[in-house]
Amino acid sequence: MIISIASGKGGTGKTTIAVNLALSLNGKVQLLDCDVEEPDDHIFLKPEFSKSEKIYLPKPFVDTAKCNYCGRCSEVCQYNAIAVIKNKVLIFYELCHSCGACKIACPQEAIFEKEVEKGIVEEGTARNILFAQGKLRESESSPVPLVKAVKKKIKKEHNVIIDCSPGTSCPVVEAVKDTDFCLLVTEPTPFGLNDLKLAVEMCRKIKVPLGVIINREDIGDKKVEAYCKEEKIPILMTIPFSKEIAYAYSEGIPIVEKFPEYKEKFQELFERIKKTK
After folding, report:
1. What is the pTM of this model?
2. Distance CA 158, CA 32 (A)
3. Which stretches make up the 4Fe-4S ferredoxin-type domain (predicted)?
């Protein structure tokens, strides 16, 4: 079973749920950290890495000796990553999706591609867990290709947990799609509710079954619960606010290690997910 852990906003406890769920499952377990801009599952798992793979993507460059500045490359680019101004071609690499359309469309064959490092994918083990994470290079944008690279490491014979980045943008959609179930972690605040609605809409559009976990459920209001009831979304787990849990988190200690009774709760969560699906 492949379970994605997502949230409409950051700081809701998504990583906490992903790590502790993975630590609580028996048998073959794999955890993938697809929050490639800020991966931090390793802080809690402390895995031993055995493999590191550089991920490359083609990027377009212009041979000015061949280019006649016709502007065809700019016309075909769907991402507005190329602009032709008089006798100059400007390429905005932060917008480029490496689709290759500009190279194909160029009548002068003036555009060529170079492989540029996008980031790395690291693999290792922690306890009984297979672990993989992606790290986007600081100078790079568009993390989607790196998310795809991490997801290629999925072992289908394992129970797979995918920790997604916060929000509902392209890298989150890429991480959540094709998973068996999405756990949306939220908090009972106006911001939590607003962003939960966006995440629910995302899951429904890509047709991934979903359920909700309310973290720090005793510090806000009941509007998240009311919304879930109205939308017939199952609330699969609630976690109360706890200074002890917060202190453990700040020290990189998983909940189930500090409070062993939570291991059974996460196992029950997994059983609820299987029944809900």
Report:
1. 0.90
2. 12
3. 58-87, 88-116
